[in-house]
Task: inverse folding
């Protein structure tokens, strides 16, 4: 029996108790308690009837470096990271938006060099534009750019390069990031075997 079903049974029981109180008890105070029980029980039943949706963090995109053959492959992965693990779309828009909490990134790959974009992602306070569009008075944005290579976002170098590839492709620019720049996953060296765990050792005795 699921937890929801158990709660529904409890709600029905509370409603039933409230009805019994109203039918057979004449004391005014107790009847008020019965009425409240019916209301609360019905409210819980209605609430439990609403489909429950779990709020889960976005699934992380794993990068299979062996499958990346072209810069376009990197851009495809970067697009997924942009809208999921990177959480970029929570603040940035791609195109004009009055509700955006950070600058519009449309055409950003054509306006800024990849080195500048990389620095802006990993050291966002190193050089700050109030509004990089340079149109009209500078605009203050309410959100502050986080260090996306650190927690809680924690993108790896490969993921950041993939996002840059996506921004360049989105801007109609040639992708200057190459799959050859991706770092292969480091292999953890095996721990040395202790002498006690190596098994019996034959000892030669001098005669």
Result:
């Amino acid at each position: 029996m699921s937890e929801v079903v158990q709660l529904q049974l409890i709600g029905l029981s509370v409603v039933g108790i409230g009805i019994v109180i109203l039918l057979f008890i004449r004391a005014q105070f107790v009847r008020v308690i019965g009425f409240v029980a019916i209301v609360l029980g019905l409210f819980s039943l209605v609430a439990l009837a609403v489909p429950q949706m779990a709020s889960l963090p976005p699934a992380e995109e794993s990068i299979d470096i062996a499958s990346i053959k072209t810069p376009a492959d990197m851009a495809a992965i970067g697009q997924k990271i942009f809208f999921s693990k990177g959480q970029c779309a929570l603040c940035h828009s791609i195109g004009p938006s009055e509700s955006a909490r950070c600058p519009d990134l449309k055409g950003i790959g054509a306006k800024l060099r990849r080195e500048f974009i990389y620095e802006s992602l990993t050291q966002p306070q190193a050089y700050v534009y109030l509004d990089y569009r340079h149109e009209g008075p500078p605009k203050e944005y309410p959100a502050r750019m986080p260090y996306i290579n650190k927690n809680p976002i924690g993108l790896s170098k490969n993921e950041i390069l993939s996002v840059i590839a996506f921004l360049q492709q989105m801007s109609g620019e040639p992708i200057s990031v190459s799959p050859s720049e991706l770092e292969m996953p480091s292999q953890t060296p095996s721990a040395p075997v202790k002498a006690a765990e190596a098994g019996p050792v034959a000892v030669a005795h001098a005669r």
Remarks:
- The longest helix spans residues 3-24.
- Confidence is low (pLDDT under 50) at residues 187-207.
- The chain has two domains: 3-49, 65-181.
